[in-house]
Amino acid sequence: MAGQSALRIVWIYPDLLSTYGDQGNALIMSYRARLRGHAVEQLNVRSDQPLPVQGDIYLIGGGEDRPQRLAAERLRKDDGLQRAVEGGAAVLSVCAGFQLLGHSFYDEEQGTLPGLGLLDVTSSRGTVRCVGEVVSQPDPALTVGGRPLPRLTGFENHMGTTTVGADAKPLATVRSGNGNGAGTGVDGAHAGRIVGTYLHGPVLARNPGLADLLLGWVDGDPAPTKAEDVWHEKLRAERLAAVGA
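^ that's the sequence the OP posted. Answer follows.
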């Protein structure tokens, strides 16, 4: 999709969905795209603006119940994300953003509400609040440079429980923490070029391989991004050591 033009990274509704530093995912994605030689255009699209349909990568973060509800209402009325996905765009969604991409999610005030139906997942209110560090082993089918993604690290803070349907696969198997809910044993989901997760951190700062996965989907280069700095490796090692992983 990027071709000779700038690679377009679209950050969806930073005014509603950007808890726990999730907007850092846009910064990391832009940074690694530039390392791969792309000119980058980052578009921060507020909830009162229409979503462009010509983006390459769309990012959506977490938020509380009311912002999530408002975001879902606006995205159902604006079919820009659906059209972009149909055109081959990649999507990374986190926490509340992950839930609203599914068929339905739970709102404290209004109960079960419809999502966008872009991922075959369904979310409800759990009985246990999931808080703390998560370490998970990604689906081995997700590779960068012919190798499976390394372990994912992040932190969670949610009451949601998400069930993955037959038309999607769990993003990762949980080794420490909860992920999609207490007792589920998995975190997130993926299908096509859409990835969802409960991991904050921001998740791409802790797991730059995940950014490379999405970049490879849109620029056709499956190789890992070459970077001279090693700060992300130090961050990963620190966070993994914190939970004895």
